[in-house]
Amino acid sequence: MAGLFSKARTLVMSNLHSLLDKAIDLNSVEAVKQYIRDLEEALEGLEDSAATAAGAVRSASREVQTLDVQIQELNTCIDILLTDDDPSNDNQALPLQARLDGLTTRLDAKRSELVTAQQTAEKLGEAASQLRAKYVSMVEQVTRLESMERAAKAKEQAAGAIRDAGRLAGNGADL
Prior knowledge:
The protein is about 90% helix and about 0% strand. By secondary structure, it is mostly helical.
């Protein structure tokens, strides 16, 4: 029984050590740089999506404008047919009215699509801005970490040189 518990303890301890080793690596400058690269890729993808969404807004807006113009033209044609004091051509307004009804339905759907596209584009734009801010912050942090790392190495070298000089001075006094 003691052998089983010993083996289980060894397994648990080795896994914990492995996890801690990975956590320590995540705090290294290289790990932060990799995180920044991953963040940059995500930012590029998000900016592409935001640009696509903005394009969809422009397209839907153009389609709404086109449908508005077509509806106005059909209304004008129908009004002309019905107000020309010639009742014999009033029946020609019926197909135009049917087309007008279809265009009006399409316009309502397109306006709804436009609102949704605008909301999506806005949310994607905000998300891209937030991610861009995070990216800039991370780049600044890694620059600061690298500077701190260089300063620490320089201090270690200076301390080593002082120790060596102290040993040499101590050895020289013995002569």
